[in-house]
TrEMBL record:
Protein name, entry field: Exopolysaccharide biosynthesis protein
Species lineage: Bacteria, Pseudomonadati, Pseudomonadota, Gammaproteobacteria, Pseudomonadales
Length: 366
């Protein structure tokens, strides 16, 4: 089978980017021919080529809505499809998903669209929700199948009139397993917290910093792994609160799995989510998770079993969750064991890949 993947941005590596790179590499390893079309010439292109994946940089695929650029990308993608002749187009992210479906419909090619969290989800501005809900309603049935990464997003689409129950299927995100290493013994009295996330919407680093300030006298450190436009604001707040000796900013790192293995608690505080890969990475590493109760997060994190879920903007609840896990090594260990078991039962890459390829077979009959 020849599969053409399409994703909007090459300038950042987020959850959708990692998902697509893993998926394309897995499909290629399974014997399928794969090409990725992505907007621009950023870091995504380098990562794809490092993994032996053919990648075409689209000149006119840009993130903001722009009638002229979007029409030019429609023509650009149409030309690529006619030249490469795929059996299937699999689009990721809103912009690529919209134009990818339009091109696929025009050329009578099956198309799958994966929604990595809808642009009309709770937490997004009202005007943006209305706009994207209308757009997604209009283009939903141009896809042969829509994949949501959480049951939350599937239910949201159905409630919003985007597609129907036969069109939309949930396939939870999955992460590749790592080679087992000898267990890291965490005997330090200081509890090491870590959050791996881009400094940008929808993440709420500021809210987490303010909660941590309430526990300044406790023995903990926090690593904020990632970069992005809101980092300077967060750094200023850390300085204002006098937490420079407890909160650190290592930036975007290539050794995330190693950093997780040396940590005690994973945090992800967000205003909205799909099903974040970083939570699955943390579970894979045997870490308990403190996370916002948004999107598909509760489908991975079981309350008081694999971590603690906190309602959005609940300052006292977040302080309580942090205090509970900072204060109990035994509880962290018990939750971490259950989290790791849950990962291997439900969120491995192999499960995700097989379920996705089954969708490909269903819509192409190949």
């Amino acid at each position: 089978m020849r599969v053409l993947y399409v994703i909007t941005r090459s300038d950042v590596i987020g959850g959708a980017s990692v998902h697509l790179l893993d998926l394309a590499a897995g499909a290629q390893a399974a014997g399928h021919d794969v090409v990725i079309v992505v907007g621009g010439f950023g870091v995504f292109v380098d990562r794809a080529r490092e993994r032996g994946l053919a990648c075409i940089s689209a000149t006119h695929l840009v993130r903001p809505l722009n009638v002229i650029s979007d029409f030019r990308f429609y023509l650009e993608l149409r030309r690529i499809v006619l030249e490469w002749k795929p059996n299937l187009i699999h689009a990721h992210s809103s912009k690529a998903g919209i134009i990818g479906r339009l091109v696929a419909k025009a050329l009578s090619i099956p198309c799958v669209f994966t929604a990595h969290g809808w642009a009309f989800t709770e937490g997004v501005s009202r005007s943006r929700r209305i706009l994207y809900r209308c757009i997604e309603r209009a283009v939903a049935n141009l896809a042969s199948k829509i994949i949501t990464v959480s049951d939350y997003d599937r239910s949201l689409a159905l409630r919003s009139g985007v597609g129907d129950a036969d069109l939309i299927v949930t396939i939870h995100n999955g992460m590749p397993s790592l080679k087992e290493k000898s267990s890291v013994v965490r005997e330090c009295d200081v509890t090491r917290l870590i959050m791996v996330a881009r400094f940008d919407i929808p993440k709420d680093h500021v809210f987490l910093v303010r909660a941590l300030a309430s526990l300044a006298r406790s023995d903990w450190t926090m690593d904020f792994v990632g970069d992005g436009p809101t980092m300077p604001q967060v750094k200023r707040l850390v300085t204002e609160l006098g937490l420079e000796d407890k909160i650190f900013f290592p930036g975007a790192c290539s050794d995330v799995s190693e950093r997780l293995s040396k940590s005690d608690v994973f945090c992800l505080i967000s205003n909205w989510e799909g099903l974040p890969l970083t939570v699955l990475e943390a579970m894979r590493s045997g870490l308990p998770v403190i996370a916002s109760r948004v999107g598909g997060v509760p489908e991975a994190v079981t309350q008081h079993e694999t971590g603690i879920l906190v309602d959005k903007h609940d300052h006292d609840g977040l302080v309580s969750a942090l205090s509970t896990l900072i204060g109990s090594r035994d509880l962290r260990a018990r939750m971490g064991i259950v989290a790791k078991s849950r990962f291997f039962n439900d969120f491995t890459f192999e499960l995700m890949l097989q379920r996705t390829i089954n969708v490909y077979s269903d819509v192409t009959k190949v």
